[in-house]
Design goal:
- The chain is an alpha/beta fold.
- The chain is built from 11 helices and 6 strands.
- It has a 6-stranded mixed sheet, sandwiched between helices.
- Helix 2 runs parallel beside helix 7.
- It binds uracil (URA).
- The site of uracil has 14 residues, from helix 6.
């Protein structure tokens, strides 16, 4: 077989390349260099004609311009006048690659009260969420529910994620995937109007707060979340992900302290203006 040909059909090859790229493999090297110019086989490629990427995020060759996709997401999110319309807009949105790469069944948007004082934002749906169409319904979600119940928050939360489709192999969503879903997350916050946000896990905290610190340094601290347009601001607290707590039960007490700190502020009487 000619080494430039592949036995794999194109979609399988693309998916394999995307898998390697996600794992950080972005170049393939032979053991010894081949001087193709010397061999007379090299045809210089034409100069690139693609438009520059508008937003600083990774876009692989062949993928759509992330700025254009975000503009689509912003327009679709802005049109939604309530949560039902927002759920519909997300289900129709085709700009997030996870929809085609990871999700087996459906978009997963939210559960909980539409007028909740607390919004919980996790990382991404997993297989149970993909199957059932609601966030945090698997083992990690059941632990989250037990913690919220113990803190007296069961009926006071709206729960969603930083992206709305399961990622392949349950990997964390990439910053670019979170970025294209961000307009929908921000619209959900604008519609629910919670008093504060609980950011569950490193991936959610980093994406919402635009911070690069580890979750062990972010957790339990108050930050000011700001919408990308700057017109919404809310207190936000990162905490440990319940999936992490299932693996490291000794860390549960730290998550509990976070929840207590958050509940104390949620229940603090507001000072008269
Ligand atoms: N983990 C998350 O971050 N979100 C879910 O919805 C489920 C598991």
């Amino acid at each position: 077989m000619n080494p430039t040909q592949s036995a794999l059909p194109d979609p399988a090859l693309e998916s394999l390349l995307a898998f390697w790229a996600d794992g950080g493999v972005d170049a393939m090297l032979l053991d010894a260099p081949i001087d193709r110019i010397e061999a007379g086989k090299f045809v210089p490629p034409p100069p690139p004609t693609r438009k520059p990427v508008v937003v600083a995020a990774t876009t692989r060759p062949g993928q759509p311009d992330i700025g254009a996709v975000m503009a689509q997401a912003q327009a679709a999110a802005a049109e939604a006048q309530d949560l039902a319309q927002l759920a519909e807009a997300i289900a129709k949105f085709e700009g997030c690659p996870l929809r085609f790469e990871g999700a087996a069944r459906q978009a997963v948007f939210s559960r909980g009260r539409a007028d909740a004082p607390l919004m919980v934002i996790g990382e991404a749906p997993g297989p149970d969420e993909d199957a059932q169409g609601a966030p945090f319904v698997g083992r990690a979600g059941q632990l989250l529910d037990r913690m919220l119940a113990a803190a007296g928050l069961t009926d006071r939360v709206f729960i969603t994620n930083s992206v709305f489709w399961r990622a392949p192999g349950n990997r964390s969503p990439t910053p670019a995937e979170q970025l294209v879903c961000q307009p929908f997350v921000e619209r959900a916050i604008a519609l629910v109007q919670p008093k504060m946000l609980l950011l569950v896990g490193a991936s959610s905290a980093k994406s919402l707060l635009k911070k690069d610190d580890g979750i062990l340094s972010l957790r339990g601290r108050w930050f000011e979340w700001r919408s990308s347009t700057g017109d919404l601001e809310l207190p936000a607290m990162p905490t440990l992900h319940p999936a992490f707590l299932l693996r490291q039960p000794a860390a549960k007490k730290r998550a509990w302290v976070d929840l207590m700190t958050l509940t104390e502020r949620l229940d603090r009487p507001e000072r008269p203006a």
